[in-house]
Amino acid sequence: MMKVKKVGIVSLSQGLLGESFICHELELGLKRLRDKGCDVVFMPHAMKGLTYLKAHPEKRAEDLLTAFADPSIDMILCAIGGDDTYRLLPYLFDRGELKQAVRDTIFLGFSDTTINHLMLHKVGLKTFYGQAFLPDVCELSSQMLPYTAHYFDELITTGRIEVIRPAKYWYEEREDFSESGIGVDMANHPNEGFQLLRGAPVFSGEILGGCLDSIFTVFDNSRYPDTVTMIDRYQLFPTPEDWKGKILLLETSEERPTPECFRNMIQALEDFGIFDVISGLLVGKPQNETYFDAYKSVLLETISNKKLSIVYNVNVGHSTPRCIVPFGVMADVNSTEQIIRFNYS
């Protein structure tokens, strides 16, 4: 029996979903969801477009609360990421709105949605990281990428992800998203699998984290002048004590940060003390394998805890194809056996 009968789509960051130039992608994604047996509903402001949603973070927050308030919605699916979902904080936390609204439902998104995952973690919801509607369900190839589809289908049919294994292939990112791109497959390359950079090959803990670029805004105001203040005000980022025993997941954005920028972001987490308390670190494959080896060097040079297990090249986040990572579920990582197993008991 299908776990997900009805999907509610939200635009919590960027309003791309409402733009006419992506209509062909939208139609493709809708057909795929319906072919999988899902009803689809767009939250009231999800299709309002880039300009409107940029100006109205309160409407984005309202849509999230509306989705939680509708008991017929089995899965809240983010349209895409963006870069300013932190602006939803006052509308979700000033009067305990999110805490009152939240219920046990599937929430899936990645990229800037990292900040929404931290919001939901704060109010006790276990969420799923790694895919979104436009980049994955609406993929222009003749079908969803098989590895990506495997995890999406597992989630909508069972409500959980049992194991993650590496993809056999990785894909070069699509550059043409126009209608002429429909049915055009992306070039692919053999994938190397999980790489243990340092530490023990086996470790356990609940996973939390997401897009490194978004996490960096917790410590740095260079993207927007008020991110640090806002995130501090609502105590959104867990304390070092809260991180104790967890596995940190990090992956880099489509901006493909330079090694120097990557070093600054990792250094901020090093200074925070996170690498001294977590049980292990999972790092996603960089998009198009840009700076693949340079990032490895930065991790080994910047993280002072030499005993910390670091597993690199996980197929999650901004590099395609993408798995789905459950947050808040005990995970057993075994890089020797090339598997991450989740324990729901």
Summarize the structure.
Pfam families: Peptidase_S66, Peptidase_S66C. Residues 7-130 form the LD-carboxypeptidase N-terminal domain. By secondary structure, the chain is of the alpha/beta class.
CATH fold call of the largest domain = Glucose Oxidase, domain 1
Element pattern in H and E: EHEHHEHHEHEHHEEEEEHHHEHEHEEEE
Largest sheet properties:
8 strands, mixed
* Silhouette: globular
Would you tell me the structural class of the helices and strands? alpha/beta
* CATH class assignment of the largest domain: Alpha Beta
The CA-CA distance between the termini, in Å, is 21 Å
Q: How many DSSP-defined strands?
A: 16
Low-confidence stretches: none
**What is the radius of gyration computed over CA atoms, rounded to a whole number of angstroms?**
19 Å
- Give the neighbour order of strands across the main sheet: 6-16-15-10-11-12-13-9
Q: On the 0-100 scale, what is the average pLDDT? A: 97
The domain tally reads 2
Please estimate the helix content.
25-40%
Q: Any idea what the CATH superfamily of the largest domain is called?
A: LD-carboxypeptidase A C-terminal domain-like
CATH architecture of the largest domain: 3-Layer(bba) Sandwich
Protein name: LD-carboxypeptidase
Pfam families: Peptidase_S66 (PF02016), Peptidase_S66C (PF17676)
Keywords: Hydrolase
InterPro entries: Carboxypeptidase_A_C_sf, Class_I_gatase-like, LdcA_N, Peptidase_S66_N, Peptidase_S66C, S66_fam
